[in-house]
Write a structure and sequence with these properties.
mainly beta; Immunoglobulin-like; 15 strands; 4% helix
Length: 223
């Protein structure tokens, strides 16, 4: 399936889908975890300016790709924010907060876009902060299985299956992260899948020239 964009769903869905779609009790309240345990790999982040979003949310903006790791024993909904900086360290734009589920012991790539979805030609870096980390006591509902990656003419191809584990029809944003030999994220293409009850579908992304490693992850989920 051809990737649709860097982002597939509206930004406001991010935290809602993580915390509410699996919650069927009105009395459920999020339990904050220690956000200091989250490791943000800022030394490996990459800055980009280009097309983001789809449909009414499509446009050009500056964004940063950065990995965050959860070394704890519980899955967490982690929210990152921050600011774009120029060469002198001055703030030139705010980052729109994004939330992702990071499994225990896992790592996920955040694509953090300018809050106004604007471009900043003077941006040369960013400062990233962990805004929140919420404990998740329910299993992942849409998962990646049979992950496989292989080299093809100087680039990596990553493939697998996206599987709906529950008896409800849903949609999921699936994204790949491609890394260069220094371990820095190069691209994070994505596409949205509609999944029938307890169904699975194949997914494949082709990386850019120079990519040496890739992962597949599930982002926003809507039922």
């Amino acid at each position: 399936m051809k990737p649709r964009s860097l982002f597939g769903l509206a930004p406001w869905l991010v935290l809602v889908t993580l915390l509410l779609t699996a919650c069927e009790k009105d009395t459920w309240k999020p339990k904050e975890a220690d956000r200091k345990q989250i490791v943000v790999h800022g030394e490996l982040m990459t800055l980009h300016t280009g097309s983001v979003g789809t449909g009414e949310f499509e446009g050009n903006a500056t964004y940063v790709l950065v990995d965050a790791s959860n070394p704890g024993k519980l899955d967490l909904a982690v929210t990152l924010g921050g600011s774009f900086l120029d060469a002198e360290g001055n703030e030139v734009g705010a980052i729109h907060r994004q939330s992702l589920r990071i499994p225990a012991g896992g790592t996920r790539t955040f694509a953090l876009v300018d809050e106004e979805q604007s471009t900043h030609e003077d941006a040369s870096g960013a400062t990233i902060e962990v805004s929140s980390a919420v404990q998740l006591d329910y299993p992942e509902q849409i998962i990646i299985t049979d992950l496989n990656e292989y080299e093809d003419n100087g680039r990596i191809v990553v493939a697998g299956y996206v599987k709906n584990t529950v008896n409800r029809i849903g949609k999921a944003l699936v994204f790949a992260t491609f890394y260069n030999k220094e371990g820095k994220p190069m691209e994070r293409p994505s596409t949205v899948f509609r999944l029938e009850r307890n169904a699975r579908r194949g997914v494949q992304f082709v990386g850019p020239a120079g990519s040496v490693r890739a992962t597949l992850s599930v982002g926003d989920i809507v039922y």
